[in-house]
């Protein structure tokens, strides 16, 4: 059951004379008492002896008339929240975290996403009646005691560290051939990966530095960027390493939408988009992170020759438009690794964005391919140089659990 819980403020407004009011407010309640948390029960004298359920605030909130048998708009109303699985209501104060995360409009959404990742989307939309809602001050949860324990542990990871900022160094590169494993095998410790064709390993920091030096000496090595990310714990940071490829979408007459002589130039982005959504453990020694990488490559522009309309049949005019032929590869995976180690991820042999002339094999017209490697390293202190903070492309990460 998605939606909001009881308002944060205390009940206000005048109570009509002759009305007996019972107001219940607590932090943990079960069954019918959970409904009383979000409603003020007024027994008002009326001609039809209806019971009015009024939300706190002296009538400012929505009102529902009728008892358990009332039907409005085809739905049955009820005076109690179902608690057949022993559900309880609990509120968590998250203001110590959200107040520190000033570069996000809704920092509490990151907490919602992590709860859904840890517990599963179906857990909140199945047979068990449940609710998960958050404001910048309070996280409200209605679920079983076992689920409340899981949520409490996740909230503790956010609140106890109060949105600390952590530094991450990301290195993105591609290699023309995956034979680098032969020499680096002894340095790599495999970790499980769900994505088909992808692999991941853990390395000691000194071994990772040595491996990067070896890879950079290869003739088929291409470096795509090494962004430095400063991320509030639990939030999303994103970088875009891409360039625009212009192409002629159409040819228009000046000031009209009809074919003419003026080229209508558009562009398409080619490159790499990378996102990281990290959350440290309670002791700060383990990184739990969602990684998302999207590689876009323009293989070629396909020309199409079209005839322009003309009032003179003997005078035929032609124009050429271009259709981008594109290929992309996406990677979306969750990893957990010790903070003092470096995570190395291989996306497999994927499209290789960037200038293509020097990458194609002799006598070959096929687009270039290469193995994409991502090094993710956590730093104990802020990194020198330009850093990228949370935000930007991170908004498009919402909704993936």
List the helices and strands and how they pair.
Layout: E1 20-22, E2 29-30, H1 32-37, E3 40-43, E4 52-54, E5 63-65, E6 71-72, E7 75-76, E8 88-93, H2 95-98, H3 108-119, E9 131-134, E10 138-143, H4 145-159, E11 165-175, H5 181-184, E12 189-190, E13 199-204, H6 205-216, E14 221-225, E15 228-232, E16 237-252, E17 262-280, E18 286-308, E19 317-338, E20 341-351, E21 369-379, E22 388-389
Parallel strand pairs: 15-22
Antiparallel strand pairs: 1-3, 2-8, 3-4, 4-5, 6-7, 8-10, 9-10, 11-14, 11-15, 11-21, 12-13, 13-20, 16-17, 17-18, 18-19, 20-21
Helix pairs in contact: 3-4
What does it look like?
This protein has two domains: 1-163, no CATH class; 165-397, no CATH class. It contains six helices and 22 strands. The chain has helices spanning 32-37, 95-98, 108-119, 145-159, 181-184, 205-216, and strands spanning 20-22, 29-30, 40-43, 52-54, 63-65, 71-72, 75-76, 88-93, 131-134, 138-143, 165-175, 189-190, 199-204, 221-225, 228-232, 237-252, 262-280, 286-308, 317-338, 341-351, 369-379, 388-389. Strand 4 (52-54) and strand 5 form a beta hairpin. Helix 3 (108-119) crosses helix 4. The protein is globular and about 80 Å long.
